[in-house]
Design goal:
This protein has about 425 residues and is an alpha/beta fold. The protein contains 14 helices and 17 strands.
């Protein structure tokens, strides 16, 4: 494999090595030596596999595609280049067996923290084949191979996959087989919809199944009024990404144990089980109050909702009665807000339609940024509801240098954290 230097990123559209000068914007381009391939074990071999890059100039059916790096060099929205001396998980080898958005997100989190993540892909890769070039974001900071999987196992510290037990066994990728081929301290994480045991263990599932099976979607949209309308899933891959955060934490804990004891672990992570724990207070109500939460009815706190302002959207929630008092003060005590029917939470619940009408009409005339900053200064929990365009122009993100750029200039989210000192 060709290794990347600390100041280098690779062009995902070809075989060029792009170097960013630490002190300036000059970019030097040199030809990348064609990387060698691992000795074949025959496992998962696909002779008809196309080159893995969208513009790969590889002449054989097998290729190695380095994916651009956002970790070592972060190009901010200005001309300055910010360099990280983060060590983090450097030296840890993670083998990600491409099998969905969830495992890919776990791999990305480890890669952003400095681990050497190698992604094994096939021509039917679920992430690379997603629209909108999703793979360019999820696969940032990783390297990619398309064959000779078993040659990678002996050097791996962690193996990530999303294969059901039957599929893993059929491909020779069960925990027992991976553990036999790998280090004694190898950690294997299986992130599947239902887990590796139980009657649904081998059932296929997509995002829609996961979010409904976990009961998450049952509570969406909140405060619905028509019981005949079905529950709604969140857009995109929210369930897969959220539960994958838990899988990453469990994997890191297992690795820490393996690193200290030399004893490997199998992390059997169920997306359905993890999703069921992310339904806010619903499990608590069911366990301690014998109450089944519902998306129907009036919200328990009011005002609570997303409202349009003159130049954007804002979410308002009055958790405490003092928050409602402060909101009325911020609005200048309009006559409608002093009506007796809004004096108590019960009164606001009984007259929620009228409350939303009055509050919505007032907010339409307000500058969203000025109102948000005034609310924050007054210590009430209101927040901006940003569009993608507003996020791109966010002063907060700009100041932190949050966005990174691919070698061809595509602006993408960078790491969501910074370290005050190297690990």
């Amino acid at each position: 494999m060709t290794e990347l230097g600390p100041q280098e990123v690779l062009d995902p559209f070809g075989d060029r090595l792009v170097s960013h000068d630490r002190t300036g914007d000059e970019v030097r381009v040199q030809q990348l030596v064609a990387p060698g391939h691992f000795g074949s074990s025959g496992a998962d071999k696909q002779d008809d596999q196309p080159p893995c890059g969208p513009s790969s100039r590889a002449t054989s059916s097998k290729c190695w595609e380095p994916v651009w790096q956002a970790r070592s060099v972060l190009e901010t929205s200005g001309s300055e280049t910010e360099t990280s001396d983060q060590e983090g998980l450097a030296g840890i080898r993670v083998l990600e067996i491409g099998s969905g958005v969830g495992p890919a997100w776990v791999g990305k989190l480890f890669a952003d923290l400095g681990a050497d993540v190698i992604r094994f892909e096939t021509s039917s890769d679920l992430v690379r084949n997603r629209p909108h070039e999703l793979h360019r974001w999820l696969n940032a900071n990783k390297r990619s191979v398309t064959e000779d999987l078993w040659a990678l196992v002996p050097d791996a510290d962690i193996v990530l996959h999303g294969l059901t037990p039957a599929v893993a066994s059929a491909r020779g990728l069960s925990y027992a087989e991976l553990a036999e081929a790998g280090k004694p301290s190898l950690v294997v994480t299986s992130l599947t919809p239902y887990g590796a045991t139980g009657p649904y263990a081998d059932s296929a599932a997509e995002e829609l199944n996961l979010i409904h099976a976990s009961s998450w979607a049952f509570l969406s949209p909140s405060a619905a009024t028509d019981p005949d309308l079905p529950p709604l899933k969140a857009p995109g891959h929210h369930a897969s990404l959220m539960v994958a955060n838990g899988a990453a934490a469990a994997t890191l804990a297992a690795f820490d144990h393996a690193d200290r004891t030399g004893s490997g672990r199998f992390v059997d992570f169920s997306g359905m089980a993890a999703g069921a724990k992310m339904t806010e207070t619903a499990p608590t109500f069911a366990s301690f109050m014998n109450t089944d939460s519902s998306r129907l009815g009036v919200k328990t706190l009011l005002p609570w909702g997303i409202y349009p302002c003159a130049n954007g959207m804002i979410q308002i929630i009055c958790v405490e009665e003092s928050h409602w008092d402060t909101l009325r003060e911020l609005m200048g005590h309009p006559e409608w807000a002093e009506m007796e029917i809004f004096a108590t939470l019960e009164g606001r619940q009984d007259n929620v339609d009228l409350l939303d009408l009055y509050l919505g009409d007032w907010l339409k005339t307000q500058d969203v940024y000025e109102f948000y900053e005034a609310a924050q200064a007054a210590r009430v929990p209101f927040t901006l509801v940003n569009s993608m365009a507003q996020l791109e122009e966010s002063r907060q993100f700009a100041d932190r240098g949050f966005f990174a750029h691919t070698p061809d200039g595509l602006k993408v989210p960078g790491a969501g954290f910074k370290l005050d000192q190297p690990w």
